Amino acid sequence: MNKILNILFLAVVGFSCSHQDLEVKNGDIIFQTSLSSQSQAIQMATKSKWSHMGIILVINGEQFVYEAIEPVQFTPLRTWIDRGKDKQFVIKRLKNSEEYLVIDAVEKMKSIMDSFKGKHYDLLFDWSDDKMYCSELVWKIYDRALEIKLCELQHLKEFDLSAPVVKNKMRERYGENIPYESLVVSPEQIYQSNLLETVYNN
């Protein structure tokens, strides 16, 4: 009987969550497991559940995720959540966000977002601004709008590149010229940032 009640409770909670807006703030960072072809390689290389992320922004009362896909764009929050594996996600927020994310800071964040909007997705994970991948986009927005470095950058060679699925994806992208010294940032690095706190985890 208790098991049945628990199942019913979870079903009701899931229904209500899927039909109500989440209590989010501008600048919240959201993580999910992508269903893209590169997701497994990213997860294995970074030893993480998370392979995709974005920044939440509320525009005219509507909730969006600003993300680097193809191209960089705003995606309705519910659409973004539905696109992830099992619709699971975690939302993190800058500690003392009310101190940093004041109106002027949010406007500057929007301006930085505008400068990246429409850029192509960066399949090579290069650190230039020519193209963008998801964690690079989030890191650079916080750095340039708030002068906050969410985490230290790493070199590509510091990730675990030993798994066959990772090796295959690397050969597919780079051929024999793998840029091991390139600076990169992963969703997991930002997820583990001690500057952030979890505000929602389903």
Question: How would you describe this protein?
Answer:
This protein is α+β, with helices and mostly antiparallel strands and about 200 residues long. The chain has a single domain (about 20-200), classed as endopeptidase fold (from Nostoc punctiforme) (Alpha-Beta Complex). It has helices at about 1-20, 40-45, 75-85, 95-100, 105-115, 135-145, 165-175, 185-190; strands spanning about 30, 50-60, 60-70, 70-75, 90-95, 155, 185, 195-200. A hairpin with a 3-residue loop joins strand 3 and strand 4. Residues about 1-20 have low confidence and may be disordered.
CATH homologous superfamily heading? endopeptidase domain like (from Nostoc punctiforme)
CATH hierarchy, class = Alpha Beta
Give the strand content: 15-25%
What low-confidence regions span 5 or more consecutive residues with pLDDT below 50?
1-19
- The average pLDDT value, as a whole number, equals 89
Give me the CATH architecture, please.
Answer: Alpha-Beta Complex
Class by alpha and beta content: alpha+beta
**Total of DSSP H or I helical runs spanning 4+ residues:** 8
